[in-house]
Fold these 2 entries.
Entry 1:
Amino acid sequence: MKRIAAWLLLLILLLALCMPAQAATPYRTFTLGVDKFDMVETQTAYEPVRTMIRFGEETLKMPSDMRLGPDGNLYIADTGNKRVLVITKEGEFVREITDKRNMKSPMGIYVDDALNLYVADEKARAVLVYDAEGNFVMEYVKPTHQLFGETAPYVPQKVVLDKRGNLYIVSKGNTNGVVQISPVGGGEFLGYYGANTSRISVLTHIRRFLFGKDSAVVGNIVPISVRNLTIDEKGMVYTVTEAGDDSALRRLNVAGKNTMTPDWQVDLNTSVAVNSYGSIFTANANGTIMEYTSEGDMLFLFGANDVLSEQRTGMFKSVEGLVVDDDYTIFVLDANLNSIQVLRPTEFADLVHRAFTLFQEGKYAESKAPWSEVLRMNSLFTYASTGLGEALYREGNYEEAMEAFRNGGYRQGYSDAWWEHRSNLLHANIDKVIYVLVGLVVVWQLLKLLDRKFGILKPLRWIREKILSVKLIDQVLYGFQMLRNPYDACYGIKHEKRASVLSALILLVIFFVEFVANKYFSGFLFKTMPDGYYELLNDFLMVFGVYALLTICCYLVCTITDGEARFRDLFITAAYALMPMIVFQPIVLLLSNVLSFNEEFFITLINVVSIGWTALLIVLMLMYQNDFTMKKTLKTIVLTLFCVLVVVALVVVLYMLISQLVDFIASIYGEVVYRFVKKV
Amino acid sequence: MSRRFKLLSLLLACLLAFGSCMAYGEEIAAPLAAAPEGYIPVGENSRFILYLRQDTMALTIQSKASGQLLYSTVQDANTGNATWKGFYQSGVVIEYLEDVKDKPIQADFINNANTITYDFGENAFTAHITYTELGISFDVQVALDEDGIHVHLPSDSIVETKDETSLVMLDENGQEVTVATAKYTKSAEESEFVLTTGDGSSYKLNKSYYVSGKATEVTVKDSAGTSQVTLPLTKELSAPFTVYATDAAGKAVELDAAAIASVQQNLFITATALDGSQIRIPKERFVSVSEYSYTISSVYLYPFMGHSVAGEGQGYMLIPDGQGALVSFEDNEGRYSSPYDKQVYGMNIGVEDQMASDTRVPAEDVLAPFYGMVHTDKQIAVLSIVEEGDAGARIQAYPNGVRNLPFDWATAKFTYRFVYNQPMGPSAGAVATRNAHRRQFDLTQHFLLEEGQSASYAGLAVAYRDYLTRKGTFAKAEERPFDVRVEFLGAERENYILGKQDVVMTTFAEAQEMLTTLKQAGVENISAVYRGWQTNGLTGGVPTGSYSPARSLGGEKGFAELNEACREMNVELSLEADVLSLNTETHPTLTFSAFKKITSQTWSKPTFGMVYDTLHYLTPVASRDQAAGLLKQVRAAGIEGVAFTGITQLLADYYHKDAYHDSSEMAAIYTEIIAGAGEEMNVSLVRPNAYLWPLADAITDLPIAGSDYNYTDAEVPFLTIALSGQVPYYVEYANFQANTNEFFLHLMEQGARPSFLLTWEDPIKLQNSNSSDIYSSRFELYEGLIASWYSELNALYRTVGPDGVITDHVRTGDVAKVTWSNGTQVYLNFGDKPATMDGITLEKLDYKVVSGNGN
């Protein structure tokens, strides 16, 4: 699922202002809620510790990148000062590497195990290499290999090294991918690595079709280029881009294939960091920091943008570098504030990490205790619910596991636990079920016998006939004729008045009720609406509005295509054509509450059959009522749809005009009040 | 500064400190340095001498014991531009607004023409200040009493040219001439002119009337904008004219020489000022009733009091962030770019626009209007308290380097007039406007002086406590044995298929069971609060204008039973009353009582919740009505406690019934509401603004930490030291703390009482309600924690005794030491490594209590 709008959603969906105070921390921390649909607030995971601005006598000037060296020091590409600054994690100055001759604009750095320093220099158009003493060793300039492309830009921005010494260089404006260079022979171009693919939307396709490929209207469809990257101990390369789509964070294997799809992304990512536990951290320019597990599950989202220049630790203006060490201490480099802010995990985050580590190692039973503790601190922490669910599932405690999975919004787990629990239930109760069934059969037979002898069901039959003789009820029940013999039914409606507008409306209401019941009361596994969301007015408009629109449009079209149908007939028969869905929807609702994913097929099948059947009935109904040929019927349907489009467009235009008018009047009112009435 | 110099100054400081101790010990006054150059002595108490420099009103304070000086202005003026130089060399600085321009301009004693005349009294003087070119004048009274300096600016001494409305007309050359000025009386309502036209009809011209146009005609309009009279101007008047002016008795009044030109006699209007003086001028020549264009916008009283020069002294500023935070005097070398600048008692939502809430947590509000400067090297300190005018004050603190000034300084800025944006329509932009009314409040700032050992934040906190006690701030609060506060959340609302339904979190019976369980677990003293008790629950049921316990929780009967049970268990039970928030969805009839900003727009805030999108606030008057209704019924139901929230935290200017009201009016009404409730009931106030403290039986939800400003070096429990032993205070909920152990240490450090938000049900049930931010509250999971914290904290309270107050607090790195009045010392280690202090070893996140007798 796309998460571009997710960030916006977060703003819309979240949390009251009467927030329980979380003192100190200038940002709220979030984690994914049930169904990964929105975010829920959680305890602060990382708290600000300090801001480092001065390092001995040194300060930063528009720094661009920061790495943690194997010596435990922080290496900073201090772009504005044309140097690389080395400091301790406590902010003490260690040394600086300057090189007036070669180093012009260090944008990215990497430190290898031997403390050799690789500097991606944008202006020098090279990756410069320095030894541990800071002496210039060599440089990697633009590859001359023909596969590199003569016109392809080589403007090194970031660089990392794998264990074999191959360089991965992000080159500004080069959309072919990350430049991979082997150290052999002074820099052999190995190829482009892990290029992002450009995605072309349907709209773009239409534009291309209408305006031609090269038109400006078509827009830029060049793939987005990598903004920053890092590499972990296993040689996996992590890249981030500024797009908020699937390319926002990727984990590439040796072959450059993506091996991870995060479940939530934000845009404008500028940095990425991985620690040795495999925890992945990204930061975007606005200071939103996210922690992902090694599986790409988003664990925490936090950090705030310092738009008011409040100067609070934990607020950022332009994040350019991110380092996370194995204590989960986070160092954030800010190019605008020229500072490094230090955040450290709270007791809560430590607990979550401990539980997650156990969980990922498959030690579900051992993870139960920490997960329970996490849940004590935060009942809404879905990962904890899921983790606890797994532990309970393995213990064979399926019923509680179901509840935990339900709270965690983990459908597959819930389905498995339900399957087990259901079969246990069946096992335990199969004898009772059989007794009841047998008992029912016996009672039924007995009743039939007694009825034959003494006619005891006679009053019931009498009541039934009485009810059926009520005209309206008879009309409603005539719907079943639609299932048995559609032609017959259409004839009955058209010529024999077997149905009325009222009976059609009743069927529509029944359909609406079933529609609503299915939408909101399906079993957890098959429910598509998130919990707590109800939009009955929408549903009402959806069912009745669409029905009215379609029948009216269809009637209008029919009148110009010489159809015979009266509006009344169309209105009634269309409602009767919904009979298959009316009959099958309750079954779907029932099944959705008892089936697990293993039997999902049944529900799909019923849905397909009922919808297909209804569609067929509508076509037949149109043909019959209008006395059309098949071809003409289909043509009418297409025209009807077109007519609907026109009506909708008209309504939208009208709405916009009216809202502008309202706006205009309100503005005049405001002006009048200001000018003539209100003089405070 | 070289290291040697630092050492030297340290040595000097030590010597001086030693000297001062000696002086005290031997009761011999140290030889005083001569009065600083240009200063004259104006007062003296047992510890200090006060000097005044008359041209700039600068004060200097000298300690009798040590001879140390504390300056209120910068002595060596060689940094900054002229404006800054004027600012930091003047004792009193104002900002004024010119005409219709919307940017305030500074006026000081260096850059602006002024006269200051002094009336000297015993240990006091009054300065009559006039900015001659601006026509603004006011009095400042300064007095030295035993604990410090008292600076007072009475509102009614302020005279602005705005108060002197003038009649302006054109002379023969078409130049504007002021023909008369009439001074308004003090109250805005009384100031008016009466315009009488030649035909005898008269029109009152008060503030809401105005006259416009001078090209061809003069139009007099009333406040509704309806034209009352139009006076045509003859385009060419060559004949000479005369101005006749008569007073009430009909005698001629002398007019401005320039105005007594010649006036055409048969055409005139008469303007009568309230004092009875009348001016008769020809209507053709009448141009406008104009207001002089300079109005006062804000005032600083001794903004540089106790400042420090970067790199020259040691010490820190105390700012009112959270409980109190310290900003070191250490030279920042330009690290920080913007100052600490916060409105006292939180944002003035009637004027300022709130930023749409996103992932940001707003900085802590200023709960109490104090700030301080502590010179540890000179062992002299000043705590500034805003005593009056707090409703209109901002606290500003500038660490050195901010705005390129090499000083650490802090001040209160009092705002009389705002510049705000008046929106013209939903999509039509806004016009910068300023409020014509001057907010009506006197200003009083109290500078408490401390020296010697007391020159520290702890010393200032103790001084603040003494000050508050002297003022009778804690007269209402009674002594209360140590207890924990449990707050039950009753009901919330969630969407349902048609409409909404209750989410029942804690029924009244369940609450009773929780209390019984806690009592059995050894938690003897509990004060309980019920939130979300009302019909429609926590977010749906606001304002709580009547006593209607939710039926889903047990209804009135259920609550009565709980109340009875609490009485038997000796638990103080309070109902939470929110008479500020307004949910218009559930209370549509109150829609017209919604709080309006001074732009006359209805204020609302997004809740970002799933059930109710927005909440409004009630106007103070409506809050009062709601509170009256609720309290009457609550009293009748025999409930003894009420916990006020909402109105305890808001202070704003507002627009009500076609008139502007300033925040002091709101404060007065809120005081009235709470004082009324307090007459017969126990009143606890949720995070109350300091002006409400005298009304509280208990103060709750105190913040435990500050806002993490880059420039703060340490957070100190200034407020809790000041409140210690005076009023029961409870800190914010323990539920939502990420560092539970560290939080507990803070409780131990501050002697604070913990609060818990409890529900019977799992809060996961709240996830589709407006309270989805409550993610941890289930009683089952907290009962053990409450009992264990209770027993540990109760032990501390037993050790320090019932009258225990904190007398000292020292923090070094991660370790802190708190001293109580009976000598008990609490050592705490907030770090994650073992640490030692005074020979006492502490494990990580550990504490030790050493009682007064050494155990």
Note: Chain A touches chain B through 80 residues (CB under 8 Å).
Entry 2:
Amino acid sequence: MPHTKNLQKWSHVLLVASYACLACAPLSVLAAVQSDEATQLFAGLGRAQIAVLCLLWLFKPLVLMGAFWQMTRLFSHFKSGEVLTEAAAICIKRIGQCLLGAAVISFVTVPLQSLLISLNKAAGARSVSVAISSDMILFAMAGGLIIVIGWAMREAASVAQENRAFV
Amino acid sequence: MKNVEIIVRLDVMLALRKMKSRDLAHAVGITEQNISLLKSGKVKGIRFETLAKICAELDCQPGDILEAVAAE
């Protein structure tokens, strides 16, 4: 295969990058919780509210960490030359599911977050905001696309498996 | 429809030509393991390209290597 060398070389680079992202994700959550913006947001909130808010903030990074974990597995497969395999196809599909999940979580957490923050306000001043950002659309589209590629890869893997049974 | 299975007679042809599997594998450009799988019939199929090379090497026809027999 003419592209095998390139595939293995770049898979190695991306494997290292995926591990780096996996390690940085929890740090980004810590940084977000300790930022000035968060401190201002937490002012006037009860302990339970802050705890729930932090939990809400934790969901998306956790799902993204799942995606990075699947990426490390995928690039390990690619690095060792296992390209058209069932295992690689499953990894691709799971990465897509994680990205789609991140978009859904973003969409759901915004109303919950706004509700939590305004819960202590007087009746009538409470609010729920719903928002769709370009990030959510991008994550959803990328997730959907990668899931479909995962399904296609699975088909390709089964064809490759059959081809390997030919001498 | 009658059930028929394909039997590989490569070992017979190799014996007739007094050729070793290793030599055939080397001449055809496939691994000894694949020749062994082919001999034991543990493959799903054989490419025309491989069959042509084997026939050329053993100086025979595809029918000398493959035989259709009624399945039990």
Note: Chain B has five helices and two strands.
